[in-house]
Amino acid sequence: MSSLAVVLARQLDSRFFYLFLPDCVDFAAMSDMTVQMQARQEKFIKIALSWPNILTYARIAGVPVVSACLLYGGDTARWIALAVFVVAAITDFFDGYLARLWSQQSSLGKMLDPIADKLLVAAILIVLAVDNTINGIHIWAAIVILCREILVSGLREFLAELQVSVPVTQLAKWKTTVQLIAFGFLIAGPAGDKVLPYNTEIGLAGLWIAALVTLYTGYDYFRVGILHLANED
Fold first, then answer.
1. What is the reported pTM?
2. pLDDT grade, residue 1 (50/70/90)?
3. Per-domain residue ranges for the chain?
């Protein structure tokens, strides 16, 4: 009954209903809690709609677009997929850069950024395998990259619980660059072969380079995780 009276009092703005409330109700405290909740909501909305996070959302939104274009097939669809992928790759740089530049780093951004990266990598590798751009022995390069992404995600989650951060090495950054370039050639695929001879072969070579480098960088993460796991035991 008391809760119902509070609701009615707020909606009708009538003092009569407050007669039903117990004397122990602290209206000042309730008002302060409401203000604090509103402030938290406004802060979250501001963070969620910051430009760095919007760029991350755009990268995530680009994943189904690239995938759909590749699955649809045809030269035009491949060029559209490549254009969307290039924009997504650019946002991967600018979301972090702008967050640091404008001091807008947030827990939401730190969570979504690696998720967006892995969604893009996994989706492109799977779709390129489905449409036979990556085939035969080259599938193993894709498997290595996918397994590394899963391994690193698990290790980062484990190390985060121990409050241990593993900085991104310069080699890992070069791996990501080579991988993105290889993806660009492979997304263009047969359409790119008509413009640049051996376009697909260049992409496959880049994929293997990225896979070999990713084995080493993945080992770094695995080694750090094992050391901390041994210390915990």
1. 0.79
2. very low
3. 2-42, 49-232
Task: Tell me the C-alpha distance between 67 and 125, whole Å.
Answer: 10
Contact 124, 183 (CB under 8 A): yes
Tell me what the pLDDT averaged over the chain comes to.
Answer: 83
Write down the residue that tokens 């690239």 correspond to. 66
Range list of H helices, 134-196: 138-161, 170-193
CATH numeric code, 49-232: 1.20.120.1760
Distance from C-alpha of 161 to C-alpha of 32, rounded to nearest angstrom: 34
Compute the C-alpha angle 58/212/187, nearest 5°: 40
Tokens at residue 28, please? Answer: 């000042």
Q: Is 106 exposed, middle or buried (0-12, 13-18, 19+ CB in 10 A)?
A: middle
Contact 191, 78 (CB under 8 A): yes
pLDDT band at 187 (very low <50, low <70, confident <90, very high): very high
